[in-house]
Q: What sequence folds into this?
């Protein structure tokens, strides 16, 4: 296993893993408990957007994840008045539980008002997308071999700057994991060969509720839990 990139928002790593297992882990992201706005009591809405659209936008606001019981509710109050030439109401109006307070919700013209009490609950992505913690995908890790003839294919760094770069007068591989090409794409660039083995590269991007690496860990835990339930049922 090799860690290629590791931040709280994104992790990229390679590992030798069966594709079926990798896909099972990826699908288990929807089994992670995540806090999100699930219901809105709209007391006033003079904006140009329908109540349903406002509720939908609030449901997509990333909230700091918290350990809550199934029926627990976190109330977030939302009130704003339009002034001047118009005022953009931001998600930060919901309070300190919002991860990205600059997220726009609705534009209020002068004299318009909005007043909402939003109710956040813990849920899972298998039930609704607003409970998904981020993006999780993988692909086969390519091996790029540059032969003597291929070192002079100097147009490749210009066409694929994330994959190739110049090293003096020759080209070299910059980041193989960013490559989405195969040998068919290299037909007109002799001397550059792309092959694939058993290694996979995983790319996980968090939407802020939990760290990117924790998404992978919690997905594995969810998969293990589901397999244990199946095993018990079979016995």
A:
């Amino acid at each position: 296993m090799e860690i290629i990139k590791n931040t709280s928002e994104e992790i990229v790593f390679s590992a030798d893993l069966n594709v079926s297992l990798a896909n099972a882990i990826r699908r288990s992201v929807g089994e992670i408990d995540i806090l999100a706005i699930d219901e809105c009591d709209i007391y006033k809405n003079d904006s140009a957007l329908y109540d349903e659209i406002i509720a939908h936008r609030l449901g997509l606001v990333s909230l700091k994840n918290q350990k809550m019981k199934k029926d627990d509710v976190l109330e977030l109050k939302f009130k704003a008045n339009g002034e001047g030439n118009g005022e953009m109401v931001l998600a930060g109006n919901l309070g300190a539980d919002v991860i990205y307070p600059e997220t726009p919700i609705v534009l209020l013209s002068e004299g318009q008002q909005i007043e909402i009490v939003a109710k956040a609950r813990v849920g899972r992505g298998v039930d609704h997308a607003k409970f998904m913690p981020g993006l999780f995908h993988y692909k086969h890790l390519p091996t790029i071999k540059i032969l003597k003839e291929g070192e002079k294919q100097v147009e490749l760094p210009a066409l694929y700057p994330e994959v190739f770069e110049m090293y003096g007068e020759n080209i070299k591989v910059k980041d193989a994991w960013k490559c989405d090409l195969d040998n068919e794409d290299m037909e007109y660039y002799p001397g550059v060969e792309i092959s694939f083995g058993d290694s996979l590269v995983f790319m996980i991007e968090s939407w802020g509720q939990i760290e990117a690496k924790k998404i992978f860990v919690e997905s594995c835990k969810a998969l293990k839990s589901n397999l244990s339930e199946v095993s018990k049922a079979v016995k």
User: Anything to note?
Assistant: The radius of gyration is 24 Å.
